[in-house]
Amino acid sequence: MKRTVLFLFLALLMVNFSRQSFMQAAGAKILFEIRPEVNYVTHLYTLAGLGFSDEEYTAKYGNTLSKAAVDTLQKYKEHLIFGQGEGGMLAGTFFFMISAETFANADSLQKVMDKYQEMAKRYNSPDDVMNIAKAISKVYVDNYDNYLNTVYPQAKKDMEERQNQLRQKMMENPVVKDWERVTGYTWRRGDYHWLLYRAGAKGPSYNNLNENTNTVYYNQYLDYQLAMFSHEFGIFLMQDSIDSIVEEMKEYTRSLNSKKDLTYVPWSAFESMACWYNCKIAGKETEDYRNFGDADVKTFCQIFDSLSNKGITDPAELYRKGIMEYLKHI
Question: Model's pTM, two decimal places?
């Protein structure tokens, strides 16, 4: 993240709690769920243009959020947007943590916000951060009941056909066993949850809310979507062994005397390694390999092939050595 403040620290606390809570026996099911919370957050992010956009959705539901609410969110846009491993200082709270919460109405959402405020006070969060968070919180709370009544019922209905289709596809696809086989790791976090959302056709999809829950825009190209479900499961499976190396490599790339911005490299390497394993599982080039945005997937996969041919099979070792090899040639 660009700036470390309490609200991102709280997000890390939630991740650590999740890690402890989901260390369960293997035999996991992959579940596709429709919940109002993540749909509300992506609704706000889309209508306010916070890194998400969706012309069809905005034309249909744009009048459900007042100009004053949009202006407030826009005012603090740089604090809320995120992507490619970087994000505004409040994205951890107002996208990731809120999306993972459960609240039935505006009153219960207010209690969630109050809980965050109390935690922030205990850790002496700066006054300017507290004031910004309060303004954003007010938008979230004031508009939730209206969203539940006027938008969510139809949004939920729109997603149900794809939800059922994905359930059927995953029944035919042994994702967990395939990844355990190619990495040598064992999944111990219980069921794996995919939360579908209706707003935000363009934006950072496949966002992990905790260590067994991810989010996805519901209506993507199906083959790409299925490839990314496998890709993201692999990221989750490998995280325990690689996350600390990611941070180490971030510091290392910042220390290099280079005219190029190398801060993307640790992110790119991890995503590329998930693509590489995905191709091994499928026995062919997968849709994530062909379409993974700004990650230098092809180059990294060639490096991982070379290292693998030399007998390096541990994912953490592949990751570290892959980055060091990549940096020799850019």
Answer: 0.84
